[in-house]
Amino acid sequence: MAYTINKTDGSVVATITDGTINTSTSLTLIGKSYSGFGELLNENLVKILENSASTSAPSAPLKGELWFDTNTGQLKVYDGTAFEPTGGAKSQSTEPTSASAGDLWHDTDDDQLYVYSGSAFVLVGPVYSSSQTLSGWKIETLASSGGDKVVSSMYAGNSRVAMLSKETFTPSVTQTGFATVKAGITLNSTLGAVFEGTNTSATFIDTSGTTNGAGNLVAGGNFVRTDADSTMAAKLTINDNDGIVIGAGSDLTVNVSSNDVIFTQGQADKDIIFKINDSSGGGAGTTILTLDGSETAVSIAGNVTITGNLSVSGEYANTTSNIKTIDDAFIKTNNGNGEVDSGLIVETSDTDDARMFYEVGTNRWMAGEGGNYSQVITDVNATTNGATSQGSVLKTDSSGTFTVAGVTLSSVGSISEGDTSNATVPTVGAVVTFGDLWGGSAKTVSTSNPTSGDGDNGDFWFVREA
């Protein structure tokens, strides 16, 4: 009949047929009537006795099985997943391996105790190694006339540097460097100990003296106060880009951004005003420059001298004179821009005003008003010979002569007979009529002879051949 082998909890480990063995666990399980069972049984007892002592863990452990790890010298128990140390402290010079949370390790080199947190060994104490000697805080009880006092003494290399106390007292037993212990921290007077570094809070500073001590000791009277007017005898350097803020409402901020210095008026629509103390101001200060916050404008009082170039991107307004005098020989517009029409604009009542400008599309000067512009005629646009250069503006040659191919006059007036004062340009017919009068008498040119009814007394009659 086969054996059914159960665990403590009743679950089946194995079923062993008669005359066979089972090796599914760390021990050899023996079936009924197996020959030579005595050796296997004795070996099982030895394994139990030595807890399977080996450099490697049992290959088929059961939960709760013990194994002595000969590599680490530790007894370990199988938790169903892995073999874990059963606990206990190690006293050795090197950090133990395969530790479990809560394991203790006494470092024999430094005489310090560590506990394993689950990921690393953490120092329990003391905070100093044996070679460093007493260092850090130590709680002590000192006798005094007012009874025993509990203090915290700070040591460094076995020397007491400072003492922390909740009250002031005089020790009844001599404490080197501590004739009197003050409430707070008292430093050892024999060491010349001082507080170094940054003090973020202090209740009082004694400002009665202004004579500095040796080295970096600065008398309290040399500090600048915030509750009273103070005068500095040396320059103030602020090595921070946030700069300074002035005014109860943070009105003025001076700061640095990308190495640019920025002045900011923090109040909306308020000004930044620069004043000088000139003789005419009577000591009250004369405003020389105003940066107007509400108008976004700059106002300068007095003369302004500019030694470099003046670039104006907005409008120029002259409010004190009708004539602006400029000493430069030329005024250049559209400097540094692409080619566009550019010139002079005079404000008029219409939208486009009056303009004189250079038209880049035709390479010529134009002038006009109200959007109607025509070419400005220059000497190079005129000719002395209108017969060969038709359509051009005429000018006289060096002798004062016009040359044209012909002249056509429109009918713009008339001159009647006897009219010697009319200066109006006449028509051709009027000129002929005027030519009929000669010496006060009319003259007639005809291909026929006159008759008795032609003309008046004194008239001339010219007969020409047909």
Question: What would you note in describing this structure?
Answer:
This protein has 466 residues and is mostly beta strands. 5% of the residues lie in helices and 29% in strands. Among the domains are: 90-125, no CATH class; 235-300, no CATH class; 408-466, no CATH class. The longest helix is centred in the first third of the chain and has 14 residues, at 37-50. It starts with a strand and ends with a strand.
Summarize the structure.
This protein is mainly β. It is built from 2 helices and 30 strands. Among the domains are: 36 residues, no CATH class; 66 residues, no CATH class; 59 residues, no CATH class.
Gross morphology: elongated
β-strand amount: 25-35%
Distance between the termini: 175 Å
Pairing-aware structural class of the strands and helices? mainly beta
Cα-atom Rg, whole angstroms? 61 Å
Strand order of the largest sheet: 8-9-10-11
The beta-strand count equals: 30
Q: How does the SSE layout of this entry go?
A:
Layout: E1 3-6, E2 12-16, E3 21-22, E4 29-30, H1 37-50, E5 66-69, E6 74-78, E7 83-85, E8 90-92, E9 104-107, E10 112-116, E11 121-125, E12 136-142, E13 149-156, E14 159-165, E15 184-187, E16 244-246, E17 252-257, E18 260-265, E19 272-276, E20 286-292, E21 297-300, E22 342-346, E23 354-359, E24 364-369, E25 372-375, E26 382-383, E27 393-394, H2 428-436, E28 437-438, E29 441-446, E30 460-463
Parallel strand pairs: 8-9, 26-27, 29-30
Antiparallel strand pairs: 1-2, 3-4, 5-6, 6-7, 9-10, 10-11, 12-13, 13-14, 14-15, 16-17, 17-18, 19-20, 20-21, 22-23, 23-24, 24-25, 28-29
